[in-house]
Amino acid sequence: MGTAAARVDLMGGFALYLTGSRSCAAVDDLPRGVQRLVAHLGLSHRPARAAVAGLLWPDVPESQAHGSLRSALWRLQKVAPGLVDVSGGALALAPAVRVDVREFDVWAHSALDPRGDADPVISAGVGMSGDLLPGWYDDWVLLERERLRQLRLHALEALADKLTAAGRHGEAVQAAHAAVRTEPLRETAHRTLMRIHLAQGNVAEAIRTCESFRALLFDELGVAPSPQMEELVFGLRRSPSSRAPARVPGGALSEGPRHRPAHRGPARVGGPQ
């Protein structure tokens, strides 16, 4: 028995939609066991039926786990016929089913491809979506959630660099800020933002970004930024084309968070005492 095309959303929360030629209807009130089945199949590639039963119902005898899987498949068939392909002892979502995580993977790897253009991925909203299945604490969810979080961060930074190279600084700033919001303590995201400001000639913005991150990092972890971050501003002093006074970025950044002059003007870089 066939099924209408369907969509499974896992990032930001679980949702199942059945999409026809003229409408899209959400499937509500799915039992948690059925949701977990759909989610696992959306994250995997044709797992064996026995492996699915053991993973989703690990705390019961094998026979009971297989019974729970049969019940979940029966319930799913009632509300979304044909959604799951059961063949050869393996399970998979039907080919017509779209999964946001799979689309996100395509988006992220396109952004990471150094040979690719930024245009096909710049407007992809999936790159900015939420965490995988928030509130779910299964081990297989936690591992995939962290993988996707890291993938998003690397993809956003790579996209920002591509846009900067193309002179599209406004869009680059938005991508870099999305990475910063995802992980505020990630130094590479802040360095990406600094490079964009420097590419525009906005030295004060770059210094402000460094200063803000330096204070945050010291407050949260009690450490200073890496030499790579400070080198971004040190380079201004050595560049003959720089218009910024050499003593401002060089002098302020050359000292640790606990030993700085009392005042170096509004462009002073430093963390909390």
Structure description:
The strands form two sheets. The protein has a four-stranded mixed sheet. A two-stranded antiparallel ribbon has the order 4-5. It folds into two domains: 91 residues, Winged helix-like DNA-binding domain superfamily/Winged helix DNA-binding domain (Arc Repressor Mutant, subunit A, Orthogonal Bundle); 153 residues, Serine Threonine Protein Phosphatase 5, Tetratricopeptide repeat, CATH 1.25.40. The protein is 54% helix and 9% strand. The chain starts with a strand and ends in a 20-residue tail after the last helix. The C terminus is likely disordered. The chain contains eleven helices and six strands. Strand 1 and strand 2 form a beta hairpin. The protein is elongated and about 65 Å long. By secondary structure, the chain is an alpha+beta fold.
- What is the CATH superfamily of the largest domain? Tetratricopeptide repeat domain
CATH architecture of the largest domain: Alpha Horseshoe
Low-confidence stretches: 242-273
Number of domains: 2
Structural class: alpha+beta
Instruction: Give the averaged pLDDT, no decimals.
Output: 85
Strand order of the largest sheet: 3-2-1-6
Spatial shape:
elongated
Helix percentage range: 40-55%
Helix and strand run = EEEHHHEEEHHHHHHHH
Biggest β-sheet strands, sense, barrel? 4 strands, mixed
Q: Which strand-content bin applies to the residues?
A: 5-15%
For the CA atoms, what is the radius of gyration?
A: 25 Å
Number of strands: 6
Report the top-level CATH class of the largest domain. Mainly Alpha
